[in-house]
Amino acid sequence: MTETTFQAHANGKLLLTGEYLVLRGAISLALPLKPGQSLNIESREPSGHPYIAWFAYTPGNLWFKTTLELPSLDIIETSDRTKSAKLQLILLTLKQLKPQLFDGSASYKVITRLDFAPEWGFGSSSTLIANLARWAKIDPYTLLNFSIGGSGYDIACATVSESIFYKVSALRPEIKPAGFNPPFAEHLYFVYQGRKQDSAQGIAAFNAQSEGRNLDAVINRISEISLEAASTDNFGHFCSLMDEHEQLLSGVMLLPVVKSQYPDFEGSIKSLGAWGGDFMLVMSNKGTEYVQQYFLQHSLTDIITYQDLVK
Predict the structure, then answer these.
(1) How many whole angstroms separate alpha carbon 270 and alpha carbon 250?
(2) Class of domain 185-309 as given by CATH
(3) Of the candidates 268, 279, 275, 271, which has an alpha carbon nearest to the alpha carbon of residue 238?
(4) The whole model's pTM is what?
(5) pLDDT at position 198, please?
(6) How far apart are CA 176 and CA 172, in angstroms?
(7) At what angle do helices 235-253 and 216-231 cross, to 10 degrees?
(8) Which of 16, 131, 143, 246 could be stapled to 39 by a disulfide with Cβ–Cβ 3.0 to 4.6 Å?
(9) Where are the domains of the chain?
(10) Who contacts 162 (Cβ-Cβ below 8 Å, separation ≥6)?
């Protein structure tokens, strides 16, 4: 057996509209990002017992490493048991979908490199799943659904080059180009609140708050907002749509809007991802220096322009 090498890269993601309600069928506006994750797999004939040596890097640092026995995929050693267990689940699912993988006929050295800090929530798991599915030549949504689950919008963003409308469907998600290329992009910023939120916990809280409630009207309006936001050329109208979106989700989640934490900010602010942490979409025509100085005064240092982040 000769040594073979596989390389792939997948985009990170952000959901601009439809957080939580994407799970209930709302049309959401999703953005592929410039930073993502690369995957490098070297396979070779085993000189002894077959294994996978896995090294995961964040920008500048080793995030975690683990060694898994083949063909069982048992964890032999690891620097982080929790991360390795999640990886093991994905790989076991991959093996179920493609039984000839990890059969013990080869050993593997795997290196993954994130272009972003893992706590930013840009898709460390979804980019991995997209890359692994490409390597194994299987459907990435199937790998997602049978391993860690989720709406799948992040998988859709992993391989596209422009914004998309995403809608969950019974069989396959509905994905359409959104054409979101705002002429006011210079007024849009992404600010990290410094508290990585657990998506699974956020979804559980959403399910608990929305249980037994008829959300059809809210879902329909969120879908309309997604479509309007992608097509408007007017910055003021876009901001009013994002403000309305924030108020609607506040009513569903029974949580205060994020702007309430920054009442004197001159502009609009919308939550992104799981509420209570993660990134915010910040909209202001007061200039980059104003936005940076304002949030630096609130000890928020990760401030990224739209042009620097979005594909």
Answers:
(1) 11
(2) alpha beta
(3) 268
(4) 0.91
(5) 63
(6) 13
(7) 160
(8) 131
(9) 4-177, 185-309
(10) 32, 177, 178, 179, 180, 181, 311
